[in-house]
Amino acid sequence: MKTIAIVGRTNVGKSTLFNRLCGRRLAIVHDRPGVTRDRKEAEATLSDLSFRLIDTAGLEETTSLAEAMWRQTEMAMAEADIILMVVDARGEMTRLDARLANQLRQVDKPVFLLANKCEGKMQQHMLADFYRLGLGDPLAVSAEHGLGMKELYALLKPLFPKVEKKVEEGEQESDDSPKNRPLKLAIVGRPNVGKSTLINRLLGKERLLTGPEAGVTRDAITIPWEWKGNQILLTDTAGLRKYGKVEDDLEKISAADTRNTIDFAEVVVLVLDANQPMERQDLMIASKVLDEGRGLIIALNKWDSVKNQRQVLSDLKEKMESSLQQVKGLPIVTISAKTGYGIEPMMTSVFHIYKLWNKRVSTHKMNDFLKRMTEAHPTPVARNGRRIPMKYMTQVNARPPTFVIFSSNPDQLPESYLRYLSNGIREQFGLVGVPIRIHMRKRENPYADKPRIPKWQKKNKK
C-alpha cells in the first residue's frame, strides 16, 4: 500500500484535508496555528485508490518544540511514496513556504502542490504567486468543501497500478478476519505523567513528541505495533485535567478526543505519576474506563524516583479498594518509561486482562453457581412475603463479561445482592480485575396471554 504525506506550514488546512481523505474526523481541526504536533496516520481512500495517509505538524519559526515537530515531519517525508505540499491560497507565499519547497525539490519522489481554501474564483487568480515555488502547477482545492478532489485523483491515479490494487484488496480481506484483528490498547492519564514517553519506549524509537511542559500531545495518535507476535493498535492520548480547570476550547476538544478513544478501546493503561499516585482526577479517569466496560491496568510510572516504595504501593491499593469498588483486584504494575523497567510485566498484564475480558462461561456452570450462591445466602424477601425467586442465569455477552438473571420479581432485588453475586463470579471463574455486568430480567409467564378458564367449564369439558 502506498503512503502519502501531507506537509506545509501551520494553519494551511493539512488536517482538514487529512480528515476529508479519511472520510471522518480523525485529526483535530482548529483556527489556531500549530494544533497538530505529532504525525498522525490512517488508511484513506480517494475513489478507487486506497493508501496510507500521514498528517504532519506545520512548519513554524525555530523553537525547541518546533524543531522536534519538524523532525517528525522529515520522518514522514522519508516514509512517504508521494508528498502533498499544502499552501494557503488566501494569503501570499511566505518564507516558510519557500523553505519547505526548496527541500522538497531535492526529494526523489512525486511532489504535488495543493493550494487550499480555494472556495471561489477570487482565490484561484492568486495562484500565480505559488508558481515561484518550483513544484509545478498548483492545484486549486478546498479541503473543507471537497472541491478539487477529482483533479487530485487524476494526479494520483497514474501512480497506483492496477496490480497493486488487487494485492491491497487481498490484504484487506485477511486483516478483517477475527484471528488477525489487533488488540486496541489506549494509554491515558493526567498531563505530564509520561504517556508519550511510555509509548516511545514500547516502540523502541522517538515516535511521539515529549517534553517537560504539560499538554504536548493534543491529538489521539494510533500506531500499529507488534508485541511477541501479537498485533496491537497502540493509542497515545492527550492528558485529562479536571473538567472545571479546562477553559481553553482546544484543550476541551483534545479531552473529548481522549474520552472517545476510551470508548473504542479494549484495554486501557492508566498511567500515574508514582510521586503523586491516584489523585481525584485519576480516580475519575479510572471510573470512566470501568463504566465503559473496558479492561484496566494501573501503571505507576517514574517508580525509580520513589523512595518509600512499599508505603506508596500499600496506600494506592487501599485507596483503590475504597474508591473503585465496582472492580476488585485491578492489576497494578510499577514501571519507568524512561529506563524501560517494568514494561514486560505491564504487557503481560495487558494480555491477561484482555483474555479475561473475552472469557465466556457455559450456562450449565452459571446455573450451578447460582444454586450454590442462593443456598449459601438466600435472596431477600419480596413485598408479597416470599423470597425473590431466581429462575436461571446465563452469560449473554463478553467484552466485558455480561450476565442475565431471570426472575419473576427482578425490580425488588437490591444492589447489595447483585454485588454479592458479582464478587462470587470473580472468585469462582477467575474474573478478577475486569468489569462485570449483571442484568435482571423478568421471566415471561407462558400463560399470561391465554384466557382464564373457570373451573366449572373445565369440569363440563371432561
List keywords for this structure.
462 residues, alpha/beta, six-stranded mixed sheet, 14 helices, 15 strands, 35% helix, 19% strand
Commentary on this structure:
The protein is an alpha/beta fold and 462 residues long. Helices cover 35% and strands 19% of the residues. It contains 14 helices and 15 strands. It has helices spanning 14-22, 64-79, 95-104, 121-124, 149-156, 162-175, 195-203, 249-264, 280-291, 309-323, 343-357, 363-376, 415-429, 455-461, and strands at residues 3-7, 40-46, 49-55, 82-88, 111-116, 139-140, 183-189, 221-227, 230-236, 267-273, 295-301, 332-334, 392-397, 402-407, 437-442. A 6-stranded mixed β-sheet has the order 2-3-1-4-5-6, sandwiched between helices. A 6-stranded mixed β-sheet has the order 8-9-7-10-11-12, sandwiched between helices. The termini are far apart. The model is unreliable at 163-178 (pLDDT under 50).
